[in-house]
Design goal:
The protein has 283 residues and is α/β, with parallel strands linked by helices. The chain has helices at 8-11, 122-139, 152-159, 179-188, 230-238, 245-257, 267-281, and strands at residues 3-4, 21-23, 29-32, 38-47, 50-56, 62-66, 71-73, 76-81, 116-119, 142-145, 167-171, 197-201.
Length: 283
């Protein structure tokens, strides 16, 4: 593990004392000015009496740096501080949802709108609900599982999309020249789809893989041999039961239980879900 240290010349640089102090948070994307390393915060720990932050880049490689000066957040220099202490029970504090949005006190769920978010299966729906559920209830947007997208064109036609009745579809393994990309192209040429339907996707074989490996205590997701069912291969690699439908459900619940907030998911999923929500809620 490499540590980046800052000497007296950096700490005493002009203007350093006037930099905004920002408490480090998991999932925060930072740039180390000296090395140019850019990555998301995966953990913060105390080592040798000092706080150290681990930054994981988009290739999954990680480096550790000492908290303090020398970081950029959204292009702006900051002084990175230790995690903010949790407020004691009963004290006033800004509450946030699992998606990172500010929780609105006393806000009731809205009556469901005609617009919908469709996802491929039950597990996709449960993951979206766990992270974005509070936001979607405020907006009155319902998430519905499709149980596959082979008949997506017919389903969209039956939905009759139009102004005030929009549809956002989240598709697994939406990559160029795939079956999924061809289905999406056909859907977008169907009546009423233009301007009223948005199809987005992540590159993963299954939504399970959108959970960051570090959250599960592994360096990366296991590689499943070609020809073996992906979920069966994953459960086998974890040493979990995998012989029945119930085993798959229990395995998923273990994975889902590790997810606490948006910071536990891959950016390639986060961006697509936020894109769909913006599409469905824009005036």
């Amino acid at each position: 593990m490499q540590y980046q240290n800052w000497g007296p010349q950096e700490l005493a640089a002009p203007g350093r004392k006037n930099l905004p102090e920002v408490a480090v948070e998991r999932g925060m994307v930072l740039e180390d000015v000296q090395s140019g390393w850019v990555g998301a915060v995966t953990r913060v720990e105390k080592s040798g009496g000092m706080h150290v932050v681990a930054l994981e880049d988009r290739r999954g490689k990680s480096r550790s740096f000492r908290l303090g000066f020398g970081f950029l957040l959204e292009g702006r220099p900051i002084r990175l501080m230790p995690p903010a202490p949790r407020p004691a029970a009963g004290t006033a504090a800004t509450q946030r949802t699992a998606s990172g949005s500010v929780r609105v006190a006393g806000q009731r769920a809205q009556v469901a709108k005609a617009s919908r978010i469709w996802v491929e299966g039950k597990h996709d729906a449960e993951l979206v609900e766990k992270v974005w559920g509070d936001d979607l209830r405020v907006e009155g947007i319902v998430v519905e599982p499709l149980h596959g997208i082979d008949d997506l064109t017919a389903a969209v036609t039956a939905f009759s999309p139009g102004p005030g009745r929009r549809l956002g579809v989240l598709v697994d393994h939406l990559v160029p020249d795939s079956k999924e990309s061809r289905i999406a192209e056909a859907v977008m040429s169907s009546p009423g789809a233009a301007g009223n339907v948005l199809i987005v996707g992540h590159p993963y074989v299954d939504v399970w893989q959108a959970i960051r490996p570090g959250v599960l205590g592994i360096e990366k997701w296991p590689v499943v041999p070609r020809g073996l069912d992906w979920k069966t291969g994953i459960l086998t690699a974890f040493g979990w039961p995998h012989s029945s439908k119930e085993d798959f459900g229990l395995g998923w619940q273990k994975l889902l239980g590790a997810v606490r907030s948006y910071a536990d998911l891959e950016p390639s999923l986060l961006g697509r879900v936020e894109e769909v929500i913006d599409f469905l809620t824009e005036p």
